[in-house]
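Customer escalation, tier 2.

The customer says the design service returned an amino acid string that "doesn't look like it belongs to this structure." They asked us to rerun it and document both sides in this ticket. The original structure tokens are below, unchanged.
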């Protein structure tokens, strides 16, 4: 929900400060809640302004601007530092306990980059697993004329095959 316009806030405050109607009557007249009228009066009394406060979502950031500046310096000094390394260094040197994910998110959001450590590529042979096709030797095609059943005398019992 967006904030009420400055014009409406001013009209509600003027009507409430005039004192000729109750807060509930002013709220009903402008279609706002009684607590909104009370809030406007309190803002005017304490801050002198009725401007809406900036809406902020979620918890406060754990890393301050000074922490982000330190992270940037450390990344310039050691581009191979990982998020875990930087989180440990923040805890040691700046007394800020944050997770590796928080550091990586802060680096990304600040537009900084850390160089990734890469392991050399090693091609390893794939392990042979029982039941895989790679274990079975290829089957050669055999013509039926090559087959010798060793029974020339029993030729009448054997029928020619065509594999």
């Amino acid at each position: 929900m967006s904030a009420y316009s400055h014009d409406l806030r001013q009209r509600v405050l003027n009507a409430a400060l005039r004192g000729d109607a109750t807060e509930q009557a002013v709220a009903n007249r402008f279609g706002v809640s009684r607590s909104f009228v009370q809030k406007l009066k309190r803002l005017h009394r304490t801050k002198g302004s009725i401007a809406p406060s900036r809406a902020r979502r979620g918890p406060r950031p754990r890393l301050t601007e000074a922490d982000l500046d330190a992270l940037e310096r450390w990344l310039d000094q050691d581009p191979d530092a990982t998020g875990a390394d930087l989180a440990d260094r923040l805890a040691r040197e700046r007394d800020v306990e944050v997770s590796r994910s928080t550091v990586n998110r802060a680096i990304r959001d600040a537009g900084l980059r850390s160089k990734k450590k890469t392991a050399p590529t090693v091609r390893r042979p794939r392990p042979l697993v029982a039941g895989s096709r790679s274990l079975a030797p290829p089957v050669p095609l055999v013509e039926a004329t090559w087959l010798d059943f060793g029974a020339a005398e029993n030729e009448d019992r054997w029928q020619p095959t065509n594999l």
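Tier 2 assessment: The sequence is consistent with the input. The chain has a mean pLDDT of 81. Residues 6-46 form one domain. Sent an explanation to the customer and offered a walkthrough call.
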